[in-house]
Fold HTH merR-type domain-containing protein.
Amino acid sequence: MLRKDILQKTGLTLAALRHYEKRGLLHPHRHPDGKFNRYDETHIEVIAQILMLQRLGMSLEKIQAFQEASVEEQRSKLREAINEGFSQVSNTQQALQKAFGKLLSLHGLAE
């Protein structure tokens, strides 16, 4: 498939796709005449993985290391990212509860 097709299927912007290619996260097939890149379903899977790892808070540097790691190392890095995400959610929840309590107190609505 062509670049426009992969952009449509993944929702990526052209700038993001080029950035992933430049960073070495995505390796399109070069058309024999060298004029354009070709993509297949494997590239869609790689993009989905990149987006999922970014949502877990991984930087592109960490994602590149993840891609280069063995399956066991990937498992470990994924567990680490998920645990870190849960920790961030917990910290955010605690901060929101504290802020909510202060707001209630300020307005005389605390129990």
DSSP finds five helices and two strands in the chain. The longest strand covers residues 29-30.
